[in-house]
Specification:
By secondary structure, this protein is mainly α. Helix content is about 65%, strand content about 0%. The radius of gyration is 20 Å and the shape is elongated.
């Protein structure tokens, strides 16, 4: 890990002779510290919210295991943390999933704060982080799918974690596409770097979250009326 140098050598560009030439040469160079910090701030905020939600769920799981019959986030039979917490999927690895969330969000916060401070991680580190957090994203959405279709109940804190996990994954992916940690093939490379540099990926992220909100409202919104 090191601070970003003001001067970038040609070797740092890691150009591929067979790759399409990017019409904007600046996008072949590492992103600016100011641009990285904006994404890091979003990751820190999302990570803090996700960490708080994970702590709440962990406490609720501990209290339910200790004999408490109802979680504080139970509104009715359909919007119920207790119903979700008592399902097999809530303890997929033999312990409450919330503990996985605490560990994951703590790591994310550490990485995001380091990026905010100007640290540039090696490509291998960022690639590993991308793979691990992609598994986390799939896991979060799979849990939502199971709760929505099989358990027939939703946990508000779990939904919040799904949202924050999506936001953190989007921020991490934005950084990795812009700095070519993720190598998109052919013309998709220049297009992808330009797309995230301009912030257009935010529209995709917002659209995904709107789909999530729409599914929740269509399936369970009537219970809130």
């Amino acid at each position: 890990m090191s601070k970003r140098n003001a001067v970038v050598n040609d070797d740092d560009l890691d150009l591929d002779d067979d790759a399409p030439v990017d019409p904007d040469p600046d996008l072949l160079r590492p992103s600016s510290l100011a641009w990285r910090r904006r994404t890091a701030i979003e990751m820190v905020i999302s990570g803090l919210i996700g960490l708080f939600a994970s702590f709440v769920l962990a406490i609720e799981a501990w209290q339910l295991a200790g004999g408490k019959t109802k979680a504080s986030c139970d509104f009715n039979s359909a919007i119920s943390c207790t119903t979700v917490a008592q399902s097999e999927e809530a303890k997929l690895f033999g312990f409450p999933n919330a503990f996985l969330g605490i560990a994951a969000e703590a790591v994310v916060l550490t990485v995001a704060l380091a990026i905010l401070g100007g640290v540039v991680f090696p490509r291998w580190f960022m690639r590993i982080a991308q793979v691990i957090y992609t598994f986390g994203l799939v896991f979060a959405w799979w849990l939502f799918y199971v709760a929505y279709t099989d358990i027939k109940a939703l946990c508000p804190w779990c939904l919040l974690i799904t949202v924050t996990t999506t936001l953190v994954w989007a921020g991490l992916t934005r950084l990795n596409i812009r700095d070519r940690v993720i190598s998109l093939p052919g013309r998709a490379g220049p297009w992808g770097r330009r797309f995230v540099q301009s912030g257009n990926d935010w529209y995709v992220t917002i659209a995904v979250l709107l789909v999530l909100a729409g599914l929740v409202w269509l399936g369970y919104g009537y219970t809130l009326l």
